[in-house]
Predict the structure.
Amino acid sequence: MITFKTPKHHWNYYLAIEQDLEKVSRYIEFAQPNLPVYSIELAHILLSASSEIDVLLKQVCTFVAPGQKVENIDQYRNIIVQALPNFSNETIQISRYDLSYQPWDNWPKLQNPDWWRGYNRVKHERNNYYHEACLQHTINAVGALLLTAIYYYNLAFSNEAKQAVSFKDTTHQLQPSSAFITIAADYYYEAIVG
């Protein structure tokens, strides 16, 4: 198996954010009745994850639509929905709490996710929308970041190899593995237990 030289700083940043979310689970039970709970720590994680998503989506667009200028989520969405049709159908799981979400499920309807709107409201009008820094939005943002990072690295590794790299090979290269939030089992060589 090839070892890729593409820097893994985005992956390491994702893992740090994921660890922050996992720590929150010691204080807030990740359960349906608690999804509206909001806090300073959830705001911090939501803002960090969503900001990193913005960075990575722009990079994904440079791989799938080179030369096309992109500056915002609507432009990312329009490119990615066409170039990577499976992206918006991907599911994330937190097995420990039996939670499963599709963080990008609004994209085929040409709408941005609720968590993205919540992020923007918290970012720009926190005095009115602090409650949008809730557990539901934060889980979806971190899950969306996981998906975006895996797709980004799949494209980066494929570009480096000058041939398509499988998602299994991609996740195998991203070590240590994400264990708290995972995606479909067929994206991994070995089972991830969260």
In short: The two ends are 26 Å apart (CA to CA). The chain has a mean pLDDT of 94. Helices lie at 9-24, 40-64, 73-83, 114-124, 126-129, 135-161, 167-173.
